[in-house]
Every structure is written in C-alpha cells, then in structure tokens.
Amino acid sequence: MSFALVLFYENANGSDLTVSAADLGALRAKVAQVPGLTKAMIFTPEKAQDLYLNDGSSPPLGVQMLFDRITDLEAACGPEGALQVLPSFLPSLSGCEANQQAFVHRTYPVDDATLRTEPGALPCSYVVSYAGPAQDMNAWLGHYIAGHPRIMRRFPGIRWIEILTRCDWVTHLPFKIATNMQRNRVMFDSPEALTAALQSPVRHEMRADFHTFPAFEGDNLHFPMATETVVPA
To answer: Considering the domain 2-230 in this protein, what is its CATH number?
Structure first.
C-alpha cells in the first residue's frame, strides 16, 4: 500500500495563468528532495477529445507525490516540512487557488505498461475527480473498484491505471483541504493516444458502466494533462 498527496492549482476569477518553465524547474528540484518520497508526477495542461465530456480547460498545474508511509506524507506537510516552501515557490501561479488532499493509492494491471512517448514529449494522463459524497461509500467503492478498472484496461494503448480513495491525514500546509471522495488516473503515450482511446468503443462501455454506479453527488471532472515523473534525488 502507498499514499498519495495531491495538490492542484486552479485558475481563479477568470484568470488563465500558465506555470513558467523556471517555476517548473524549481518545483521539479524541490519535489525530488522531499524525504520519504518514492515518486512524483507533475501535471500540466494538455488537450484531448472525449466522446461524451468536455469539462473545460485543464488546471494550470497538479502535483501528485507518493509515499510508502502516511507518516512520511504528514512529515512533508508538517510545520517544518519540506513542502512548506510551496505557497511562495511558484510566482507564475500567484493568482491561483491551490488545494490539497491525501489518498490511499491503488494501482491496477494493464496489458502493456511500456511507454512509447516520442523523444522530448511527455505521456498524457486523464485525471478524474469525484467530489461526492456517495449515498453509501462502501457500496460506491465496492462497485467501482470491482468493475471500472476492468473496462479501463481494454482502452487501446493504455499504460497505467490508478484509483485514489480518500483518507484522513494531518497537514499544516496553508492550502484549502479538498474533500473529493475519489480520484482516478489513466495514462497514455500522448494526447493523441488518449484521444484515440476516448473515441474508441471502450468509451461507450465506460459510459454505460457509469450509469450503473451507486448514487453519488457532486462534480465528476475529467482533465487531460501532460505527465512528468520525478524520482527522488
């Protein structure tokens, strides 16, 4: 089992900010030095076409950090933690509203996990959130985990499947605490490969399965995002 700390920066008040290359470089270096980190992903906006959905522009930045122990995650968020620099660390996103949430990190098999991304390019993730709440959280998770990943696995060109389920944790970061009941991520070689999957017959299966979900409330958002993997320094 592992744990994920997820941070997203959202444009506010009609702004349309873009994280600068300098800020990305500084973030990459800082994240790689977080004690206890096993791996991190940095998400930046991409574009893809879904047969059913268009949730607007992707957020300007997301960061997902993985830890083997919840105590390491909490230490990174602590009063003296390595992530306390983040609120003033990204001047190009100074008008954004950031949020944070910790999750249990679950992964599922794919038939071919080998990335075939072109040199100089990044793979593309479809980052999904379910705000919730579900009428019955146990029924929701049981139904979703038992069925949806098996359909996701049939997407052509899929390289990664993960489901993040909410957990309680302690944080001293000054960001808003998000309360999503679940996040998902599937990853492909490129935005074109993601689009091909989202235009395939499997997408109809996914939509049909969506209509069998136990009752839930709140937004269900889907954003394509370029995905850079950062490993500890």
So the answer is: 3.30.70.100
What sign for the dihedral angle of Cα 220, 222, 223, 226? Answer: positive
- The residue ranges of every structural domain in the chain are 2-230
Q: Any idea of the CA torsion for 63, 65, 70, 71, to the nearest 10 degrees?
A: -100
For the cut 90, the answer to whether the pLDDT of residue 88 exceeds it is no
* pLDDT at position 183: 98
Among the listed residues 78, 93, 218, the one whose alpha carbon sits nearest the alpha carbon of residue 63: 93
Closest CA to 194 of 165, 148, 227: 227
pTM: 0.97
Q: Which two tokens stand for residue 86?
A: 């983040």
Predicted local confidence at residue 1, as pLDDT: 80
CA distance 179 to 99: 10
Check: CB of residue 224 under 8 Å from CB of residue 24.
no
Q: Which of 38-42, 86-90, 125-129 has the lowest mean pLDDT?
A: 86-90
Q: Please state, in angstroms and rounded to a whole number, the distance separating the CA atoms of residues 25 and 16.
A: 20
State CA 15 to chain mean position distance.
Answer: 22
- The C-alpha atoms of residue 131 and residue 229 are separated, in whole angstroms, by 26
